[in-house]
Amino acid sequence: MITLGDYLVVSAILFTIGLAGVMLRRNLIVILMSLELMLNAANLSLVAFSRFRVGTNELPDYNAQVFVFFVITVAAAEVAVGLALVVALYRARQTADVDDIRSLKF
Amino acid sequence: MSPFLFWIFAVLTVIFGAAVILNRNPVASALSLVVSFLGLSALFMSLEAFFVGIIQILVYAGAVMVLFLFIIMLLNIRAEEQRRINWLAAMGSIGVSVILLVQICVVIGHFKEARQPFPPLARTTTDDVWNIGRLLFSNYNLPFQIVGVLVLVATIGVVLLSRREPR
Asked: Model pTM?
């Protein structure tokens, strides 16, 4: 029998993979992909809780799914702006590697 | 959904998610991310969230991944050459991630509801688009309009950012 905990563990593993990607990888585009992975891990646990909290009318709790809708919208806007920043940075510096961008580093 | 299908899609999602950060080639990472999102949308559908599963495929596997691949090919980013890896930083970040994972799993272990199966639904609900839409235009009307403004601002910002500097 699949329980709520199984979905939460899958979501935790996905979030951890995303976090490790953000910290390990030096390529800006792969860092953005890892951010997407983390956002989707949060979405998975939201949807799992939505299915778990069945109301009196025996329907899932749709508030969580509306929240997932907002998360997906904001994530799409974030990716668009992030990739535009990568392109602007690449024009200025000819690199997409975070190790080469350290002008602000003290 | 049968436990067998759940485990197939969960393992698929996690393995290809790991492939995203393990591949050196950004194109391979992007394609692994597509497969991972397809598995994730199957998991959403196993939770009777068909609308969310569909927009997961449409928005992520469709729009966002095309954007990623387009930028990778536009910038002509090749696989990272074998740079000297900072082993201390790598070990530190892996350590932090593993500690976080262990913490979340301990919290889930203490969470009593996590061991209960999902309660049954009245019927297989295929009208969740109707339900989500009704909430979106009643309870969440103001956030919905704010998100619209956010997307507009993001569009204008992207156009401004990627414009060539006038000489």
From this structure: 0.91
